[in-house]
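Tutorial, part two.
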Amino acid sequence: MYINSIGKYVPEARVTNDYFEKLNNLEEGWILQRTGMVSRSKAAADENADSMAINAIDDALKKLPYDIKEVNLIVGAFYAAYDTVATPAHVAQRHYGIHGAKAVYASAACSSFINGLEIVEGYFASGKADKALLICTEHNTYYSNEKDPKAGHLWGDAAVAYFLSKERQSDDDIEILDIFTEGLGDVGKGPGGVKLRPGEDGISMPDGRDVFIHACKYMIYALNKSLGHTGLKIEDISKLICHQANKRIVAQVAHQLDKPLDDFLNNIEVLGNTGSASAPLVLAENLEKFKKGDKVALMVFGGGYSCGCFIVRF
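Running the prediction step on this input gives:
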């Protein structure tokens, strides 16, 4: 399975810590100390999850080695939807005239993107598709409650689009070596750890400590599963990318793996928690840094709970 092209979109606006510190009477520097965030991205008033998705797809089309109309599977994988009926998968199908493609939506909180990869893998294996578009677009600020002192300051907005194929399409393709996911609803706080209830209090995180503990544990668990499947060792991995929920989580994962923080790529300082788009977005932002043969592991943890990892080779 191969990645043929990657596109990204990040809104221009940034909301800095002082805004939330004043709004919620937090001490100066409190947010930075506990999250590692300096600012977070925010979609404009005329933007939404669908428009960000189209912008990310347009970016990916610049280097796509085939016509987008050859795509026969479109998967939207995210949680902060603009519309859960007419999803970005359907919007993209109409926008680009991709007639005859399957269009589906799946969510596993912040691990949604990797679950989306696994869905594509399954369609490829069954012979029901051979070229796919995977869309991950998170409009967190559409749902977040800025006055929530626990979690209102965490969220950023962004979108990514990955074109995937069963067979290699060009010399620039990135090979996916392994995809692993697992549901963890029976672990810790599980379904109560992170919530998104639009009619109530938006995105909330009632027990951040429980999320922190299990995120650290299960991202490493997922990484080890993928390493085991591929026969690789941690020393074979050029760079690691964690879900961008909290810089302290990344630091703890690095400590437990006995790896320097320099081996981890991040964007949380500037963009905040961009949900399930965050890890694939970090990869998209750093493509020029990799050379032929480099291997990158992406680890995620999602509310609900769930975890996942995928490893790519350039």
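The two ends are 13 Å apart (CA to CA). In part three we will examine how such features are distributed along the chain.
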